[in-house]
Amino acid sequence: MSATLLITQRELGTYLRSMTGYVIAAILLLVDGLLFNIFAIGGDDKLSATVLQQFFFYTSGLTMIASVFISMRLVAEERQTGTLVLLTSSPVKDGQIVVGKFLSGFLFLAMVLALTIVMPLLIRVNGKVSMGHLAAGYLGLLLLGSAAMAIGTLGSALARTQVLAAIFSGCMVTAMVLCWMLVHVTERPFNDLFAALAIHGKHFLPFQQGTIHLRDVVYYLMVTLVGLFAAVRVMEARRWR
Amino acid sequence: MIEVKGLTKYYGEHAAIRDLSFAIDKGEVIGFLGLNGAGKSTTLKILGCVLLPTAGDVTVDGIDIARHPHDVRRRIGFLPDQPPLYAEMTVSRYLSFVARLRGVPASAAAAAVVAAEEKTSTREVHDEPIGSLSHGFRQRVGVAQALVHNPKLLILDEPTSGLDPRQIVDMRAMIRNLRGDHTVLLSSHILSEISQTCDRLLIIQDGEIVDQGSEEDIARRIGGAAAVAIEVDVAGGPDSALAVLTQLPGITRATVVRQAAGVTTLRVESAADLRAQVARGLVMGGIDLVRIDKGAGRLEAIFLQLTETKELPQ
Known about the structure:
The structure holds two protein chains of two kinds.
Chain A: H1 3-17, H2 19-40, H3 48-71, H4 76-81, H5 84-88, H6 94-115, H7 118-126, H8 131-158, H9 162-183, H10 190-197, H11 205-208, H12 214-240
Helix pairs in contact in A: 1-2, 1-6, 2-3, 2-6, 3-6, 3-7, 3-8, 3-9, 6-8, 6-12, 8-9, 8-12, 9-10
Chain B: E1 2-11, E2 14-24, E3 29-33, H1 40-47, E4 55-60, E5 63-64, H2 69-75, E6 76-79, H3 91-101, H4 106-119, H5 135-147, E7 153-157, H6 165-178, E8 183-188, H7 191-197, E9 200-205, E10 208-213, H8 215-222, E11 227-233, H9 237-247, E12 251-260, E13 263-270, H10 275-284, E14 289-294, H11 298-307
Parallel strand pairs in B: 3-8, 3-9, 6-7, 7-8
Antiparallel strand pairs in B: 1-2, 1-4, 4-5, 9-10, 11-13, 11-14, 12-13
């Protein structure tokens, strides 16, 4: 097993053995369930596809928030407790450390997202749900989660404490969400630029509606890569301090 | 085993270490001695491939740490001042994880864990969560993680920090048992620790090596540091004892260290061991001798002389 997978395995075990992981999962599922019941299936009669779109919309926001909280401990906690030196003094590249940690957070998020499937199944009981729409929506959530988790990993690599990591990551993700709002108050070419940069909006809406655009997949993968690359550079720079 | 040339590390404008040069042979137990903030931990972190130096060359087993850090890391076991332990893992799982991380094949990991546990006497807590262990056991597990991949070089930063006297004795014995199998570089600001465990000393002050060699060699080189500490009854006051001592041939310095409960402690320094002459002189001078002790304080004297500070380490 490679060092990356060893780190992933250990980190994932930490999420599953600690209260923090379960608390984050419980809060995400509780809030998602409430939003689903109040806004998605509540109110006037709607088409099943519309209910599903609203489910993906609310879950996408919670996915970004959960990613920030799941990722805050990845590097910052180890720095705080002094265990990071175990990894940095081992024959492991900084890239392997960062990717191993990112994967553990991402897999944990994916497990939590898998538990939300109960809500689309509820729609299926009373209506029709296209498997394609479902698959596209969950792919979008995973890609969005991957991008937010990579940004969170960068925030965690930058910060000395978990609280600071959550603040850094929260600010970065919020700034990327706000880009979509700036689209409506700016003119070309700036609105095009903000739309292209926005982590939600233009890039997530197609997934929400059951459509997969290669452009959006590439965008989320690029954000993930850039976030992880920056996190690796931060780890390398800390050796120079 | 280790060759360090011109090692320098700056944190911003501040030089933590400057132009350090030393060499360590295979199988030696070396004591790295210095006050807090002298640059010990920075040096050890560079040797442990955790930090990169600003300037200088370091080779371990002939391998340059800047060019081939992974090859060096495979040969090194590093225990930082705070043992890097995952509290939620059991000792066996933790050591197995570290062994695999440091390149021990999966098939050999279990045997490596058992060997490390036996060397550090942590077998009895094999299945215990690290978070539930006493401080002494945690420190031992910290040493176990450093040697689980059977490295040639062990770097231990303050391994007895926070231990009680019994645990210190056990840790000292454990480190002495590692001699031969591993080259050990041990840092401490506890002088008795270094004195009783190490073959050779590297004394660092303000980021610079001020002397190196065996305790005897350094004492001989700087002269006057082969001190004999004595304790005398002060019925006649410290002055009468000092008067007797300063008249004895071979005594280079006699000073009052402390006075408490009717007992005055004097430090007597001489080039050679003059215990017999000092005892005879004091008794002949009518002074009640309570205790006379060889060597206690010699390393302190060396350290004080080399670092030119009035502050004594523990």
